[in-house]
Amino acid sequence: MPVLAVLCAVFVLVVERTIEWKYGTAGAVGLLLLSVGIKAKSPALSSVGAVILALLASGPALNS
Predict the structure, then answer these.
(1) pLDDT digits (tens, 9 = 90+) for 29-40
(2) pTM of the model
């Protein structure tokens, strides 16, 4: 069980660092809102976080 928890924590950290590296502070805020909204079972927070991440991810496609 502890190995699974460590692997899960490492995966979350890698995803968080990748999003922050690629999308900057706005990506980190979007990921934070999404994760807090999921843990708090708040559809409003998770939706705002998901929209921020979706806008950041689709930005290059919309600009070309």
Answers:
(1) 998 899 899 999
(2) 0.72
